[in-house]
Write a structure and sequence with these properties.
Blueprint (H helix, E strand, L loop, with lengths): L2 H5 L5 E4 L1 H7 L3 E5 L6 H14 L4 E7 L5 H5 L5 E14 L12 E3 L4 H11 L18 H13 L4 E5 L5 E10 L2 E9 L8 H15 L4 E7 L3 H9 L3 E12 L11
Parallel strand pairs: 2-3, 8-9
Antiparallel strand pairs: 1-2, 3-10, 4-9, 4-10, 5-6, 6-7, 7-8
Length: about 260
């Protein structure tokens, strides 16, 4: 979920998600409450949507400061699953660090298809919000992230860090929102973890963002991802905002579980 969708605008966004619906075999819609949305009006829209929308699963994201919303939305008749908490971090790009990728090499023009192929096994068992919902088949997560990575790699600055033999060690994708750049998706492949790949990727992302004219870099992760959050803190990043993700499951779907 992009920073821009949650931090720009002040109206609740409601949209069907045909891609996710096809992937998981149930109808899925998304409801996003931006940071600047007026609380009472936004809650009224969310409650009405959960009560009246026909989707089997509604993926709802709203600012974490609305601590009463979860309890108050139980009256909509849907089963609510607290799926995750997403937090955003911010770093100014006034001092971009010098690159030192050795013993790796940064490929700044990978094909989108290559990035997608790298991404699929990386996220097969990643504990994101889909994995919290027992009605969804989590064996399909890797394919979903591969599709997303392929799309992102064709739309903004992208880098793949490779070993000397060409083996991919990790990648980053950056989206540009004017003077703000966002690390949207990326990670380290299984065979190269614990070797300092992630900090090298961050340097590449910072430099790509700065070269594209951005003055800030935004990143996000789930709150349970403590190693990455500690790294953000060591890097001097500042916590920016937090959003809850809730899956609102239609009551007549609640007793049906997908294969896990």
């Amino acid at each position: 979920m992009s920073w821009a969708a949650l931090h720009r605008g002040d109206h609740v966004q409601v949209a069907d998600s045909p891609v996710e619906s096809a992937r998981f075999g149930v109808s899925i819609a998304r409801v996003l409450v931006p940071e600047e949305a007026e609380a009472d009006a936004a809650f009224a829209t969310v409650r009405e949507t959960l009560s009246e929308h026909s989707a089997d699963v509604i993926v709802l994201r709203y600012p974490a400061r609305h601590v009463r919303w979860f309890a108050d939305l139980l009256s909509t008749g849907r089963e609510l699953i607290h799926a995750d908490t997403l937090d955003f971090w911010d770093r100014a790009l006034d001092e971009v660090r010098d690159p030192d990728y050795a013993p790796y090499v940064l490929d700044e023009s990978p094909s989108p298809e290559d990035v997608g192929a790298i991404s699929a096994p990386m996220f097969d068992e990643y504990p994101n919000h889909y994995a919290a919902n027992p009605r969804l088949d989590v064996s399909r997560l890797g394919a979903g992230f591969a599709e997303w990575a392929t799309t992102l790699a064709g739309a903004g600055p992208t880098g793949v860090l490779r070993a000397e033999d060409g083996d991919p060690a990790g990648y980053y994708t950056v989206a540009l929102h004017g003077e703000v750049a966002e690390w949207v998706l990326g990670g380290v492949t299984a065979g190269h973890r614990g070797r300092g790949v992630y900090p090298r990727l961050m340097v590449g992302a910072e430099r790509a963002a700065a070269q594209a004219g951005a003055s800030r870099l935004i990143v996000s992760t789930q709150v349970q991802n403590l190693p990455v959050r500690r790294f953000y803190a060591r890097l001097g990043m500042t916590p920016l905002s937090a959003f809850l993700t809730v899956h609102a499951v239609r009551s007549d779907r609640s007793d049906r579980s997908a294969t896990r």
